[in-house]
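TASK: fixed-backbone design
INPUT:
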């Protein structure tokens, strides 16, 4: 994964790493719904946290799984929780 020209290597959907913590704090500060904060550990959200922290305007990520909730039809997934919002996280 690359954000703003910096290689971050690979990351997973761990709940306890620094990026999940950063994203939870940011989502709460933006007063997003509590169910949205539950998704802070997802890789897609961690990339947003990295971009915000570094001030990056671009990045490159390869995700080796189907996007959140895509195959399972889960109700709580990034698209349904955040809606059409383009979060300036």
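OUTPUT:
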């Amino acid at each position: 994964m690359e954000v703003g020209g910096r290689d971050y290597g690979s990351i997973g959907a761990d709940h306890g790493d620094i990026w999940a913590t950063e994203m939870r704090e940011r989502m709460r500060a933006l007063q997003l719904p509590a169910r949205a904060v539950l998704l802070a550990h997802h890789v897609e959200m961690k990339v947003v946290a990295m971009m915000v922290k570094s001030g990056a305007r671009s990045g490159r990520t390869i995700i080796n799984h189907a996007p959140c909730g895509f195959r399972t039809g889960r109700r709580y997934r990034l698209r349904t929780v955040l809606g059409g919002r383009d979060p300036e996280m």
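COMMENT: The longest strand covers residues 2-3.
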